[in-house]
Request: fold
Amino acid sequence: MTEPQPGPHPAAGRQDHPVPAPLAVPAPLAVPALSIRGLAKRFGGKIAVDGISLDVPAGSFYGIVGPNGAGKTTTLSMATGLLRPDFGTALVHGTDVWTRPLEAKKLMGILTDGVRLFDRLTGEQLVSYAGLLRGMDKDVVSARVAELLAAFDLSADAGTLVVDYSAGMTKKIALASALIHAPRLLVLDEPFESVDPVSAANIRDILDRYVASGGTVIVSSHVMDLVQRMCDHVAVVAAGRLLAAGTVEEVRAGASLEDRFVQLVGGRSQTEGLEWLRTF
Amino acid sequence: MVAHLLRLKLTLLRNSLRRSPWQLLGLIIGGLYAVGIAGFLGVALVLLRTADLELAQTVVVLGGSAAVLGWGVVPVIASSADMTLDPARFTTAAVPMPQLLTGLALGGLIGIPGIATALVALATVGTWSRGAPAVAAAVAGAVLGVLTCIVLSKVVTTATAGLASSRRFKDVSALAFMVPLMLMGPIVAFVAQGAAGSAGFLADLARIVAWTPAGAAWSLGGDAAAARYAPAGLKFLIAVATLAGLAWCWKVLLQRALVTPPFAAGGRKRGGRMGLFGVLPATPVGAITARALTYWIRDPRYSGSLVVIPLLPVLMFFQAGQTGDYGVLAIIGPLAAFLLAWSISADVSYDNTAFALHLSSGVRGVHDRLGRALACLAFALPIVLVFSVGPFFFTGNWDWLPALLGLSLGILFTGLGLASVVSARYTVAVPLPGDSPFKKPPGNVAQTMAVQFGGMGVLLVLVLPEAALVIAQSVTGSTAPGWINLALGPVLGLVLFTAGVRLGGKWLDARGPELLAQLSVNR
Reply:
């Protein structure tokens, strides 16, 4: 693995928010980066999220894991102001997402899973658009766009329409759009899906440096190994409920995160049966 | 296996209806429409039973050939082929080829166009119920004809699948299709004139077409009724050979397509060209305007409506030329104003879930509304001005210019304001991003109609003052109301525009998440 190329420093644009000197493990600050209380959502007859409360300490790298359909995306959508909860509140650095949405959204960078992009723009135009929508200065935007594209290895495709991008490139350009305004909290839903290993490593480096300088990252994933290696905190969600939350060490309690996860979530079917599969 | 495929198709159809009662209502409306047309054609064909044999033969052969051509051409150009039974999805299921072909072909019959074609084709049996041989020949002809239609459409869609999956082809073909569609009226009138000019022309044409693969099957009944058995036998062979040849082509193409999925190689382009983003102000409103204008150029769903605009005067000119009354040209200004203003009434629906970027960026509703409206205004205003003033060079009746200019501007500004409110509150069924503008959009057709017609009704009420002044001028004959309209139209229009953008912005701020949830239903 070569040295990571000098990428953008997402914290560089906010010298006016002094952050504590980077520590190996940033101490949790008094106000959590994200604090959700009793979030619940029902779609028709199905309860998607059933009262989840969670504190994400500032400066943490927080993983949310859960099986398919556990309510991860729904929870994150409600916490970021994209889906109105039936019950509960969400505070980002003390700002209520649902009563002061414009202020709260300034603090957040959001990568949503399963939504389209304005894909008839070129990659470069799309990231710039995200910056300009946030009311950023033109020169700052163009400088950051160039750096972000280089960091995500997309410079050679900057002028290609996003609709012609591969799945992994689309994910990367969406991530770049979420970073452009140097948010204090990054909420990334499935950021590594269909991203190639080299790009994934580059993204991890970028996120590690971002956390080291005081930013907070929340990622959802089903890849337990990744979460165990990358995150310092983890929450396990299944069937719309929070099963466990804390530092990765606390949650996995000596076992590997994957084993602990399967133990918590259950639903592991007995490996008996399917004998015919061995009869060919 | 064939029965399995047919059952799958039916299940897919039923499940798509189960998603919402609106969907069912939409299918019923579409079905009634098709039943109406098919019923009309069917009754007409049965009534032809008593008509002159030559005439009936001409109608059936030309109509049948047109149906074959339609099945061959429409799916490609409109790239709206029914892909619920996309052969690519059966690649791993190892279905034997003959059964897959039979199943897919019969599956193609299930659906409104297939059933309608089959019913109309069967009605030709009624036309030829003039004796046992004629009936037998007509039944054979109808079956062969309908199967030819279906298999031809499959051959064409399979052959162009590689081409059609290239985005550029899709974009261009969708736009190219607009032009003949718009000019349909003049073209039909032209053909009708030609036909009236030489009465024997169509009969001669039918006689020739009957010997081609497109018309052979449809001529069987007529030839048998006229007791021309030798030509009928030959044409039967032509029809069977056509169907067999098409089926063979389809099989070969499908075999190749199943192992070589379409691959679209795109060139990589380095950045540095920001397009409109570099020109317009670097503010949220400027960026939204630049984005919307870029879409007006690059997205065929938008640019399709722009292609229509220059054809509008052509159409009206043709109409005027037929009646010799060029006064009717004056309405193209107000008409263009309405079409352009109303074109952004589904703007957020066109975004689909990409709208999430606006929501997560915390864009203020007013900025969102204003940016989109300004983008439309940027080209709509010059077009409306040209279209409003232009006709008077032909009519020379300049007295009417102020009144109509006021009306056009009033409609344009009022319409943009109203569209800003409507698209902030209601989603309608539109083709998905990347789809052809002609593709049947997912989602409830009934709500779309309610929103569209309701909105247009409100617009009509809002522009009543301007319309009243135009009427006043025509009643009194004085130009004073016209001059008042020239002032009133833009002023009242701008007031309503501002109000619409503000109200739409307020609703967007309040209901952004709900709007995104509605958009996520159809994606």
